[in-house]
Amino acid sequence: MENKKNWLKRIKEEFMANYKEAEEFKDLYTKAIADFNKYKKRKEMEMKETKDEGKKELMEKFFNVIENMGRALEVINENKSDTENLKKGVEMIYKQFISIFKEEGGEIINPLEGEEFNPEIHEAIDIEYIEDKNLDGKIIKGVQKGFKFKGKVVVPSKVIVGKIKEEKNEGSTPEKKESEKEEV
Questions:
Q1: Which of 82, 138, 150, 176 is the S-S candidate for 105 at Cβ 3.0 to 4.6 Å?
Q2: β-strand 122-130 against 157-164: which pairing, if any?
Q3: How does residue 169 score in pLDDT terms, banded at 50, 70 and 90?
Q4: CA separation (Å) from 6 to 119, 146, 168?
Q5: Domain range holding 143?
Q6: pLDDT tens by residue, 54-104
Q7: Which residues pair with 142 in a beta bridge?
């Protein structure tokens, strides 16, 4: 009987030790989940702050362009006939926009006539039938510029592509043979 009591006591002690260890693991698990959730929220906040900082920097750059646009509008309102200065002002503002665009990783896709059509950077919005074989599959006209951001196409340029006019085959076709039989 003594062996049974010792055995039960040992089993109970092992059970309690295992139970205590399971409780410790449960506490560690709960703390790890809480820490992970805090980390996740902190990273989301940092990401938002980083995005906002980037937007703020970009807005500062555009603010200078907006100011110059305002000055150009003032010149228009004051001197309705001073088109040369107006043209220079608009060109300056355009160059500022392009500069900011490139500085931020943008690249303009400017399709040129005679350039090979590339579906990765061009979108064919129409086909123009041509007779010049050298222009087959080439851009006939650029309709709208596109742009890339850090090398990846965001907006493809819109183009009209040349396609060689195919001569109709005047040879015999099943339809033609049937109509010839009916005539006889």
A1: 150
A2: parallel
A3: very low
A4: 83, 85, 104
A5: 106-164
A6: 888 888 888 888 888 887 777 777 776 677 777 888 888 889 988 988 988
A7: 159
139 belongs to a structural domain? yes
Give the angle subtended at the CA of 160 by the CAs of 155 and 165, to the nearest 5°.
150
Confirm whether 180 is domain-assigned.
no
> Considering just the CA atoms, what is the radius of gyration of the chain in Å?
37
CA 152 to the chain's CA centroid = 7
pTM: 0.57
Based on the fold, state whether residues 37 and 65 are members of the same structural domain. yes
Q: Let me know if residue 78 belongs to a domain.
A: yes
Q: Is residue 72 part of a domain?
A: yes
Number of domains comprising the chain: 2
Q: Which residues of 136-153 are buried (b: 16+ CB within 10 A; e: fewer)?
A: eebbbebeeebbbeeeeb
CATH number for the domain harbouring residue 121: 2.30.22.10
Residue 81 to residues 43, 69, 73, 84, 161, Cα–Cα distance (Å):
56, 18, 13, 9, 41
